[in-house]
Amino acid sequence: MIDVKKDFKILSFNIHKGVDFFGKSQLTKLKDSLAVSDTDLVLLQELVGQHSFKQKNRHKIHTEDQLEFLADTIWSYMAYGKNAVYSDRHHGNAILSKHPVDWWENHDISETPFESRGVLMTRLPLSDKRYLWIANTHLSLIDKDRKVQMGRIFKLLSAIPASDPLILAGDFNDWNMGLSKLIGQSQLGLSEAYENLNGQLAKTFPAPWPILSLDRVYYRGIKPLDVQVQNSNLWKKLSDHLSMRVTFSF
After folding, report:
1. What distance in Å separates the CA atoms of residue 171 and residue 203, rounded to the nearest whole number?
2. In which order are the strands placed within the sheet that holds 8-14?
3. Taking CA 10 as the corner, what is the angle to CA 61 and CA 215, rounded to the nearest 5 degrees?
4. Rounded to 5 degrees, what are φ and ψ at 31?
5. Average pLDDT in the 121-144 region?
6. 206-248, pLDDT tens digit by residue?
7. Is residue 217 classed exposed, middle or buried when 0-12, 13-18 and 19+ CB atoms within 10 A define those classes?
8. How far apart are the C-alpha atoms of 66 and 219, rounded to whole Å?
9. CA-closest candidate to residue 168, choices 107, 112, 215
10. Distance between CA atoms of 93 and 17, rounded to whole angstroms?
11. Dihedral sign of CA atoms 234, 200, 168, 109 in order
């Protein structure tokens, strides 16, 4: 159970299937970096739920199950939403948590058979008998599909009690900024954490030379105290995206 008297820290990261911008496996370094990130909860996109033995050797990846590998001995609770399924592997969104997760559900929001997308919903009990709701998503590369997918997410989030805090984060692929206005005008009362504290959205892609604001952390019912784009030389080498770390207060 989360103590609402303490700050709550999250990290959102598209891990690019555990390889860096140039296709080299960084899974062990990623695990070590997450372990020392001082966060309560991690939202991951493009995590490989399972590789075949052939794929494991081909990509020189140390494990066939990235979720189990990353969570081992560090994160007590985890959830995985399988989105893209191939004959020899599958990948999707995942959540790692140091606090109990009492419910989770994955929703397919794909618009075409060529691009599998989803939103992973989880719920964490708070000490004041409410819940913290988390939605982890990875949206389409196509503008019109992203807008339809956001409509589906709005519908899912509208069922959450207005008195409960909510975080919607992930890789929105919103390279043309078409979703920003749409989300701002929704009836859900969502704000973006980095934009709230810095007056603009964070640039997170591509990791070596970030120019696009693809990764976002939206919230409601809690207060962002600090937002950091993890842009050290180490974090730049872990994926093709940069991660975002947000400290919230209840």
Report:
1. 12
2. 77-85, 89-97, 41-51, 8-14, 243-249, 223-230
3. 70
4. -60, -45
5. 95
6. 999 999 999 999 999 999 999 999 999 999 999 999 999 999 9
7. buried
8. 28
9. 215
10. 10
11. negative
Place of tokens 């990290």: 11
Six token digits for residue 203: 């640039």
Beta partners for residue 81, in sequence order = 93
Q: Which domains does the chain have, with CATH numbers?
A: 8-249 (3.60.10.10)
Beta bridge partners of 118: 108, 138
What pTM, to 2 d.p., does this model score?
Answer: 0.90
- In the structure encoding, which two tokens stand for residue 232, read together? 């050290």
